[in-house]
Each structure stands twice: as structure tokens, then as C-alpha cells.
Amino acid sequence: xxxxxxxxxxxxxxxxxxxxxxxxxxxxxxxxxxxxxxxxxxxxxxxxxxxxxxxxxxxxxxxxxx
Length: 66
Fold this sequence. Notes:
Elements: E1 15-17, E2 24-33, E3 39-45, E4 51-55, H1 56-61
Antiparallel strand pairs: 1-2, 2-3, 3-4
């Protein structure tokens, strides 16, 4: 039986960076859960406009972009 899981709160629209000095990205929507309980979230690179998936647990550890 398929079980629906509600997505966690995600700071959609926030601009963050990969670590203290990494590229900036805009946080998108939660996409799908992982087996370990983490979630994949869509992120959009600010400079290139490229979109990709990024783990929510990593995103929450990244700083707000300066």
C-alpha cells in the first residue's frame, strides 16, 4: 500500500549558499522523501538558472547568502 507522507517545512524562496563561500541558490519545493527520512528539495542556481535536487538536511545547514 502506498503511504502518503506530508513534506516537511522548507524555506521556499530563501537565497542560501553552499557553505560559507559557495555559489548561491534559491530554495524550491520539497520533491520526494528518501529512505533515511531526509527529503530532496529543488534548488535553482542564482547565477546560471540551472535547477537540481539537494538534500534538505544539507540545505538547513547552509548559511543565508550574503
